[in-house]
Amino acid sequence: MKSYIRIIGNSTPEGVPSIVVHFDSKKYMFNCSEGTQRMCIENKTKLPKMGNIFLTRVDWDCVGGIPGMLMSLADQGTKNVKLLGGKNLTHFMAATRHFIYRTSMSVETHEFDHDGAEFKDENLTIRSVILLPDDYKPPSPPPITIDPNSATLAGTKRDHDSMSEGDAHPDSLSPVAQMNYKRQILSDMFSNQAAAPVKVDEIERAAAAYTGGHPLAPLEKVPGADVRILEPTGEEGGEAILEVHGKGGGKAPAKKFVMRGPKKLPRSKPVPQVISYVCQGPAYPGKFDPKAALTLGLKPGKEYGRLQQGNSVTLPDGTVIHPHQVMGSSRPGAIFIIIDCPTPAYIPSLLASPAFAIHQTDDVKQQPKVVIHMLGKGVIEDEKYREWMKKFGGETQHIVGSEDYCAQSILFTSHAIAQLKLSRLDDRIFPIPQYNNIPLKLLESLPNLPRNTTPLSNLLQFQLEPSPVLSHPEQQSLFDHHNPKSKAVEILEELHEYKALAIDVRAEVAKIAATVAQREKRPGDDVVITTLGTGSAIPSKYRNVSATLLEIPDHGNVLLDAGEGTFGQMLRLMGVEGVEACLLDLRLLFVSHLHADHHLGAVKVLGRWNRGSAERDSARRSASNVRDVVKGVCGCGELWDEEGEVRGYVAQLKKFLGLTTLKTVDVIHCRWAYGISLEHASGWKIVYSGDTRPSEKLVKVGLDATVLIHEATFEDDMTQEALTKGHCTTREAVEVGMRMNASSTLLTHFSQRYPKIPVFTNATSSVGIAFDMMRVRVAELPRLPRFIRAMEVLYSVECDEANEND
Q1: Do the Cβ atoms of 50 and 82 come closer than 8 Å?
Q2: Are strands 685-688 and 707-711 parallel, antiparallel or unpaired?
Q3: I want to staple 74 with a disulfide (CB 3.0 to 4.6 A). Which of 102, 374, 609, 760 is the partner?
Q4: What whole-number distance in Å separates Cα of residue 509 and Cα of residue 506?
């Protein structure tokens, strides 16, 4: 029976790595930060057996990849997933109710509330160890005051376990009832139910797609019905009315159905709780003794296998041979420990915990085979921590994950190699991702470390059974474009036809650049467009999900959507200091609609912005308005028509960005889906479609645009799929740009069915193809169509990694 641990990811500013424990029957994951799903795809880590995910912290650095991971697991056929972690885990999951639902899977949460709380199944026994910072003070109980609008005390909690119609805010529930209430929300989100049976009445069938369902549930196309949605009030838990009108001259009467909005959540308070885990595998069976079996009269055959499986066998003379007679003594399963210590403030709690002390012993059976340390800045430098590490025994392997001591190597090698190839066309428009295969600091520079200590790295593997072995498979394929013997460079050198054509294309583009330099400067020439993510639905090896950055000189930055992993894309493009500078100038984050692939990265982006802008009052004021603007865009209809505070925020936002016009229009995709038009005082206009079918409203608002950034999810022969899923084909997107009279059209949001091969078009000389991390000034957009000839050669071999997820 083989079992092993594999590291997915690295200790980076993007988040903590994931630790995956492999058994034949199941896999177990510890932490799931943003980008984990994409790294699993990159490294061919299969997900379907992933039934249990443990979290060391309910913090975005540890849980940011959970929503996307759950949806992918459901789509791959997983029926049940259990999430285990600390306080507020259930609240976190319930907070995603606006944009996550799957009817084919159930999700349960378990919150460890005391030291030693245990998880156990056939493969693992896992005990939780709760750590708190040394300055932590438990919150005081809420004051008891009289609520003038209620017959109950405002500081008391109801004991009932559910809320009936008309009940007050769920804050009034007891802690137990609040937990049950949130778990019910989670159950509604992941119902694990088969599709509802088709109703005889086609009009009611259309209504069933929405009534009692999720706000983003797709509305079924019913030939005999016309469905209209009367928008809700905008309040959580509010109701909307679904009107279904029969077609055909009013023969069928209109029917109305109540559609409930997402339920309210009780308020929660952050708890700085960190959980480490002490884990032990199953007892390892002793070896079979064939000599003992022969002595007992049993000849070699299938009965040997039955005895090794723990079954007794009976000889022809009636003698019963039991497994213990022919098997050696079993031994305890391998122990491994996962430590999370985000700051030095947690060290005293960790050192004082008896849960670790019992494994710091001379008893080999109690010693862990490996301890994985996920450490924040300043922890490994603490002498007391290193002394504590050494207490585990000389044979214990230590794996240290700490940002400064881990090489910041390329995690997405497939994309980096693709970018290296494209850089032959223009290394400024297609920059190679930033990386460093040498850590900032070396562990060897620290005194008093255990002798078996190694830095954590992506794909680092530790075998638990049958014997402990540490291996570094990723070292053979590290991306290093400076090394002529590296795999990346060798691949590029074999592309003789492409390299020759790239030289011709560069010369051709240089002539265009010279012409542009001689002409009079045009409005918007210096605006920089960076397509951080150009794929749809789920990330792939080559394309991350949606995000486009606009950098407006002397005014600030705009982020158009922010799918999961957006911060990581920025980090690989700009480096740590570059990202900090970019986020300090962030003025607007526009979320086009509530599908997860367009906004799951917003939390990380805004969190890092908030940290970086703490000392910049003007930036804080502008981006605090951004959050309300985003709320207005996603929840209140067309932004420009809103009254009151949102309208005031828009006026202030326009001033910061130098805009004369900022308009949003609803587009044809799902409820609350919008496109946006930004028109600058200097005369340029940039339009972003979000996800949509061809939209006349977008054409109207974007008339004479300088740049149209438009989705082109499907190829031209897939019109029916585009109709069904509310997207555009390449031809349709180009035609929108032509009707809009856009000077340049930039196509993005390609189906991940084609993760490597872009969708090309020869329609006009004003159309360009977007790639991840492509960085282009508006004045340089005419270069993009010139690259297509070389790209067709580069991508002439059909990609064998297509998938059917759109």
Answers
A1: no
A2: parallel
A3: 102
A4: 5
Which pair of structure tokens corresponds to residue 324? 């213990």
Identical topology for domains 3-136+271-282+331-471 and 495-616+626-804: yes
- Which pLDDT band, with edges at 50, 70 and 90, does 102 fall under? confident
With a cut of 50, say whether residue 113 has pLDDT above it.
yes
Distance CA 741, CA 721 (A): 27
Residue 161: Cβ-neighbour burial (10 angstroms; 0-12, 13-18, 19+) = middle
What is the spatial distance between Cα 26 and Cα 10, in angstroms, rounded to a whole number?
23
Q: Read off the pLDDT of residues 278-320 as tens digits, 9 standing for 90 and up.
A: 999 998 878 888 888 888 888 898 888 888 888 999 988 889 9
Entry field: residues in the chain? 806
Please tell me the distance from the alpha carbon of residue 572 to that of residue 409, in angstroms, as a whole number. 10
CA torsion angle 91 92 94 96 (round to 10): 160
Asked if residues 695 and 736 have their Cβ atoms less than 8 Å apart, the reply is yes
Query: Domain segments of the chain: what residues?
Result: 3-136+271-282+331-471, 290-325, 495-616+626-804
pLDDT in tens, 235-290: 444 444 445 555 444 455 555 544 455 678 888 888 999 999 999 999 887 888 88
495-616+626-804 topology per CATH: Metallo-beta-lactamase; Chain A (3.60.15)
Judge contact between 349 and 132, C-beta under 8 A: yes
Those residues whose C-beta lies under 8 Å from the C-beta of residue 90, and which sit 6 or more positions away, are 109, 111, 179, 182, 183, 186
What are the DSSP E strand ranges found in 46-98? 50-54, 80-85
Answer yes or no: are the C-beta atoms of 457 and 401 closer than 8 Å.
Answer: no
> Residue 751: what pLDDT?
87
732, two tokens:
């349709």
pLDDT of residue 155: 44
Query: What are the φ and ψ backbone dihedral angles of 465, each rounded to 5 degrees?
Result: -130, 145
CA 664 from chain centre, in angstroms, equals 27
**What is the CATH number assigned to the segment(s) 3-136+271-282+331-471?**
3.60.15.10
pTM: 0.86
**10: exposed, middle or buried (Cβ count in 10 Å: 0-12, 13-18, 19+):** buried
